[in-house]
Amino acid sequence: MSRLPHHKTLDDYDFTFQPSLDVRKVKDIAALSFVEAKANVALLGPPGVGKTHLACSLGIAACQAGYGVYFTTLDELIRKLHAADATGRLTRQIRTYLRPTVLIIDEVGYLPLDQKDANLLFQLVSRRYETGSIILSSNKAFSEWGPIIGDEVLATAILDRLLHHCDVISINGPSWRMKDRLADTEPPMAD
């Protein structure tokens, strides 16, 4: 029921590939005290650094501890909220995202939101504030969320609620998916 896209744990994560990542902080977060505190976790970094892997790992740890978990991308979440709103079921759909103890929202920042999208996201974040945890991944720094949300004031209001009780993990390193491809494209060394 968690809809996690894959079963990857922290043991499967190659911390040596991302040396800038604070392993101790990640493992502390994986102890799930943030869930008990109804706090949030934000995973920030460029594509391919393992944000989704870490989000899923935390989701698996939460499931194993008996917590309800639900995984979605921001794009999918917004599409479902739009569809529910069009059929008069918005309140019911929002409850779907309020029910789990941990809501994982992946890929924040890949697609810009229009005003209605941003309002829907604000409603959800506002309703979950201090009542349930959110784990989100984003390829954008928080300072870049204004253009993504499409409204600086609304972006500030969303971030205010998300970040009030939040562990932020920034990952700055190479793409795991591209590591072998980049090696394949290196020109041969001359003799």
TrEMBL record:
Listed InterPro entries: AAA+_ATPase, IstB, IstB_ATP-bd, P-loop_NTPase
Pfam families per record: IstB_IS21
Limits of the AAA+ ATPase domain: 37-170
Superkingdom to which the source organism belongs: Bacteria
Gene3D superfamilies: P-loop containing nucleotide triphosphate hydrolases
Family affiliation: Belongs to the IS21/IS1162 putative ATP-binding protein family.
Protein name: IS21-like element helper ATPase IstB
Taxonomic path: Bacteria, Bacillati, Actinomycetota, Actinomycetes, Pseudonocardiales
